[in-house]
Amino acid sequence: MTTIPTFNLLEPYRIAEETFVIPWALEAPPVGHFPMNSMAIRGAEPVLVDTGSPAVRAQWLEAAWSVVDPLDVKWVFLTHDDRDHSGNLLPVLAACPNATLLTTWFSIGRMAEEWETPINRCRFVIEGDTVDVGDRTLVAKRPPLYDNPTTRALFDTKTSVVWSVDTFATNLPAPMPEIGELTDDEFRDGQFFGGRLVSPWYTLLDAGKFRAVVDDFQRLGAEVVAGCHSPVLNGHRVDEAFDLLRRLPDVPPWQEFTQADLDRWMDAAEGSVPPEQPRPSAT
Length: 283
Ligand SMILES: [Fe+2]
Ligand SMILES: [Fe+2]
Known about the structure:
Blueprint: E1 13-16, E2 19-22, E3 25-27, E4 33-35, E5 38-41, E6 47-49, H1 57-67, E7 75-77, H2 83-86, H3 89-95, E8 100-103, H4 105-111, E9 122-124, E10 130-132, E11 137-141, E12 153-156, E13 161-163, H5 184-198, H6 207-218, E14 224-227, E15 230-234, H7 236-247, H8 259-269
Parallel strand pairs: 6-7, 7-8, 8-9, 13-14
Antiparallel strand pairs: 1-2, 2-5, 3-4, 5-6, 10-11, 11-12, 12-13, 14-15
One fe (ii) ion is lined by residues 80, 82, 147-148, 166.
């Protein structure tokens, strides 16, 4: 297991050869924090994997360009069009004139409610497609859990890193670079919580069919798992995470927070909740 010498949000850290996570996180009271990560592969033809959240646009762009010169970026792989993944897509494409956007027909349509994606810069990548990026082949694959129909994960055949998108999402007591900092109980509870949160439709699953999907995804052979909402998984935690995923169909549904919970939190705050503030401009 690698050791991350320092860890700060929006400071990229290396997880494999020429592969970096760009970390961010959101506080999510009362369950802790959720990672909000992206990834960059600085190979012969550099790849950005997702484009971060608009809430930290300037800082995210600065972090990304600390890993790779935007003029060198050849590919932007968009896993799906949710805002935490696509939120800085247009600024990224503007800064990276030599980049091709790897996306899907449906993602472009879903983003059209807010912006027009330059279709002349797009290449469609669907489930099972491979992309030759010079010194490695990337494989697009639908992960077992997802919260958007366009979702495709990305497996790097050179480093055996998989970007699992929203699968393996977990809450954390505090932002951290690697899952190894969690206890066994925290790890299990986090995987079950994140999975149920991201994909509440898991209750509809045929457990046998779902486990076959998990097996198929595991057969990619990932040795390191990075994802938007999880610290990096490596070592024994990779197989354990897949095992927990196979158990998910047997876990009772998560009971959502209710208005009574919100009332209690507001009472506890005793008027100390500040009035709603506009966020600083994200441009
Ligand atoms: Fe999502
Ligand atoms: Fe996400």
